[in-house]
Amino acid sequence: MSARGSLEKDTLGQFVAEVAQRRAPDLVPARVLDMGCGTGEQTHAYKKVWPQAKVMGLECARPLVRFAHGTAEANGLAIDFREANAADTGLPDESVDFITSIIMFHETTAAQTQEILKECWRLLKPGGLVLHLDVPYHAHRIPLIKQATNDWQVRHNGEPFWTGFVELDMMAELARAGFDPDHAFADYESAGAATYFFFGGRKP
What we know:
The chain is an alpha/beta fold. Helix content is about 35%, strand content about 25%. The model has no long low-confidence stretch (mean pLDDT about 95).
């Protein structure tokens, strides 16, 4: 993200919010859910962009949830951080207007990907938006040498699900989870020289 110049800690979250506003300009979310929020810095952006919204961050690692809560409190941001699995959040049906994640899906299995997408569809209100950001390392976009180094990462550098993620047909995965293909997407957005893979959809 250095292509964007001077960075704040929530710069990537700001970018996601910008993309969401372009793709759903009519959406003013009352409830925002950030899945796999980690230490929570990117979640801050959603509270800043939509200060009237109830913003929630979910993370399965308890120490990160505690850190995220403390950081938000220190910055004067009322964000609800919870320890939960993105595939089984425990939240009510059709209770969220905007669901997002940043570089979460390539850290999980193909089977879990489908379960998370089903959970997104269950949680999404009619008219709501799901917008996930992840790595843009699909084979048709990168040279062979990059494909080889990515394979090395999978085998030797703690990225066991990376290749499996980029080999998924995400439009097919979204359709299997309940998303209407006419209202779903799996494409790319750029921020300066950096490009990211975005996928999700709206519930009619």
